[in-house]
Specification:
Layout lengths: L1 H5 L7 H14 L23 H12 L12 H13 L1
Helix pairs in contact: 2-3
């Protein structure tokens, strides 16, 4: 659910964003968190509509973390095309 929400498919209301922030804060320096998104951080304000809360969430996620950018091409679309090409 979080990965779907963070990809920007739906807007997360303020309470949901606050709860996510609370979870991230409690896990900070205790456990790992992995988030996948096809939206750049600058676009997260579409999902987290409060700019300050959005900045705080990004701050929690990126502090001491590793950011892996895989590009803008869809992995699923590439796999579908590869299977179609193999079947042809």
């Amino acid at each position: 659910m979080w990965s779907r929400t963070l990809c920007g498919y739906m807007e997360l209301d303020r309470r949901g964003a606050e709860l996510l922030f609370q979870v991230l804060t409690e896990r900070e320096e205790k456990n790992s968190v992995a988030i996948a998104s096809n939206e750049s951080f600058s676009g997260w304000t579409k999902t987290f509509t409060d700019p300050r809360l959005c900045a705080a969430i990004v701050d929690r996620l990126t502090y001491g973390g590793n950011i892996i950018e895989t590009g803008t091409d869809s992995y699923r679309l590439a796999q579908t095309r590869a299977r179609a090409h193999q079947g042809a």
